[in-house]
Amino acid sequence: MKQALKRMLCIVLTLALALPFFAGCSSDKGTAVKYGDYKISRAMFRYMCCVEKTNFLYEAYGVDSSTVSASKLTDNPSIWAAVSGEGESLGDVLKKRVLEEVRVTLYLEQYAKENGYVLTSTLRQSVEKEFNTMLTDFSDKKEFNQYLKRYGITYEEMIDYQCMQALAWRGAELLFGENGSMRVTEDSARKYYNANYATVESIFINTKNKTYPNGKTVALPAAEREEKEALADSLYQKLLAGENFGDLYLEHSDDQKVTEEIAQNGVTFAKGSGFASAAVEEAIFAMEVDGIRRIDDAAGVYLVARRQLNQKNFEDSKESIISILEKERKKGLVSGKEDQFSVDEDFIASLDIASINHVV
């Protein structure tokens, strides 16, 4: 995707929306979802699925959007037919995720309006003017419309989308901003941190597999496996006797990220972050601070000491935690209110995620 367009498609306009009358932003080309005075067209819902499809592909390939262009992501129809853990196709999971986002967005728009913030024709012109400053990769509106055609929307509908996001941003500010009734406080963030993060010193001993320089992985021969098991037993006894964890870690751990910094400070991680298998994480979170455990896993042996969480790691994680809690609270805004939204279920059911383009 061209750099200017990247910024354009992700922008959330922080505009002051305290203006006196309502001007709807959505296209009238068929309504996908409606709530109160606001609605999202079928075309816009489809476009949001295109955007979310890109996010899914980044997740599926485990790559970072800051280093890998979306144009490099291979879209295979079989991805969207694959069945998730909930028994639904990934295509259906994606549509549900977009529908949830749409419900929250419409709720926030309506909340902003009920508190005196609406979009006017004057403000729409301001949105369009700022939007146009980012179209430097296109010679004119016609060329831009040709680009947007692959995603089933037009220039006007893209402006609608930016207006919608701007008003939803104002609603979110009213609820979650500094004086908002649903603002995530530092105390709330700290409680989440204490419950969902752990700091550990960990030595991993690979007792199961051997990987050769060519990438081939085979089971360890019996003699090597016994040697590794004996090493794990010996290190565990040394740790229980009070030997320095960091020194033993640097000398013996089979972890691929062995560093001096980790040896000195351990690792702080969140539940579900992939630090280790779910079983190992569960065992770690069941430990008391300063406890030491040997945890046997399918990959090998973890020798773990749980340490006290510290202020620096909390500060490093606080912004991410606030974002997580805000997202949860936004979901809560519409939880149980599904019957208040008018949803074109037939249109959404018929939308084939495999056939739409991801945004590049």
Could you explain how this protein is built, in words?
- By secondary structure, the protein is an alpha+beta fold.
- It has 2 domains: 3-184 and 318-355, Triger factor/SurA peptide-binding fold (Orthogonal Bundle); 188-312, Roll (Chitinase A, domain 3), CATH 3.10.50.
- The chain contains 14 helices and 9 strands.
- The protein has a 4-stranded antiparallel sheet, with helices on both faces. Strands 2-1-9 form a 3-stranded antiparallel sheet.
- The chain is elongated.
- The relative contact order is 0.16.
- The model is unreliable at 1-28 (pLDDT under 50).
Helix segment tally: 14
Low-confidence stretches: 1-28
The gyration radius over C-alpha positions equals 26 Å
- Largest sheet descriptor: 4 strands, antiparallel
Number of strands: 9
Strand content: 5-15%
Shape from CA axes? Answer: elongated
Q: At the first level of CATH, what is the class of the largest domain? A: Mainly Alpha
Give me the CATH architecture of the largest domain, please. Orthogonal Bundle
Question: Which structural class do you get from the secondary structure elements?
Answer: alpha+beta
Terminal CA distance reads: 4 Å
What proportion of the residues is helical, as a percent range? 40-55%
The overall number of domains is 2
- Write out the strand line-up for the largest beta sheet, numbering strands in chain order: 6-3-8-7
H/E element order: HEEHHHHHHHEEEHHHEHEEHEH
CATH topology (level 3) name of the largest domain:
Triger factor/SurA peptide-binding fold
* Average residue-wise pLDDT: 88
